[in-house]
Give the backbone structure.
Amino acid sequence: KRRTAETFFALRVEGSSMNRAVIDGKRIEDGDYVIVDAGYKSPKDGDIVLSVIDGYANIKRFRHDAENEQIVLLSESTHRIQPIHISMSDAYSVEGKVVQVIKKPKLRL
């Protein structure tokens, strides 16, 4: 499927749950922006995705646990954050794949 400019959007990151995750050499840190490919709705194991669980958006590493018939969303953080386990009955959707990080500006005063 061909991607167009309308397929992508930016989202400001809040929190440190992915501050060890790296895309193209850039860590995903609080205050950064990520570019999301909204046309990418079927993630592969290991992709970093934007998903919505019960109305709450999050950015996590996608893992498909076929043996237990669930999806596991993993944080990559300097903090201990428990994985999120998604069962087939949960209100869950993938809104796209994170494809780029735009770093927050470093201001010198």
Residues 36 and 47 are 12 Å apart (CA to CA). The beta strands are 8-12, 22-23, 26-27, 33-37, 48-53, 56-65, 70-74, 84-87, 92-102.
